[in-house]
């Protein structure tokens, strides 16, 4: 006689346990610095539990075109976050979400990327994407992260999230383009938790 055991309840219980652990984390501090987020240009809001962070950028715009200095074609922002980590758990990021706006002439390209790493480690994980004109849109972009890079176990972790965009008109020197990061969202579903 054979017995079939469903593993679904086991997986569900394990998932719920990890989610329960996630309820104990918090974003303890944050700081933003870069050409796309100079001092005083970023407005940050967190929820009541300090588990979600929304950063609204007022200066994170890269542009290119005739007469535009080459230094304007690339902007970046480093977000330094301190995360409290529950005992017996570690975390990685699985994606980052952004509200963006862009307007690109024909063959003008914008390449964007986000990478993160922990202050205690040199390994990094991240993702990137690009859009090529002729194109204009206001768009929410979710950037998947690979490979996962894990925090230390059960202690506060300082993590740097580095976001950058470069706009290029090398394929159309007379073309112009603008790419604007409007808001960064780091929400509870941005985290992946694991026992350690």
Automatic annotation (TrEMBL):
Transmembrane segments: none annotated. The keyword Ribosomal protein does not apply. Pfam families: DUF4360. Keywords: Signal. Residues 1-22 form the signal peptide. InterPro entries: DUF4360 (IPR025649). It comes from the Eukaryota. This is Secreted protein.
């Amino acid at each position: 006689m054979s017995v079939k055991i469903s593993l679904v309840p086991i997986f569900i219980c394990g998932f719920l346990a990890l989610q329960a652990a996630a309820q104990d984390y918090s974003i303890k501090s944050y700081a933003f610095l870069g050409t796309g987020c100079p001092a005083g240009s970023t407005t940050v809001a967190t929820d009541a539990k300090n588990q979600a962070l929304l950063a609204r950028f007022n200066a994170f715009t890269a542009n290119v075109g005739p007469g535009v200095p080459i230094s304007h074609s690339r902007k970046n922002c480093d977000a330094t976050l301190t995360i409290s980590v529950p005992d017996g758990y570690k975390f990685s990021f699985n994606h980052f979400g952004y509200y963006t706006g862009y307007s690109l002439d024909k063959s003008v390209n914008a390449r964007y990327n986000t990478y993160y790493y922990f202050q205690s480690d040199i390994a990094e994980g991240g993702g990137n994407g690009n859009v090529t004109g002729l194109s204009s849109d206001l768009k929410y972009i979710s950037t998947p992260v690979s490979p996962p890079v894990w925090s230390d176990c059960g202690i506060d972790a300082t993590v740097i999230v580095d976001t950058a965009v470069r706009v290029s008109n090398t394929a159309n020197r007379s073309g112009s383009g603008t790419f604007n990061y409007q808001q960064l969202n780091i929400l509870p579903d941005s985290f992946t938790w694991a026992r350690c």
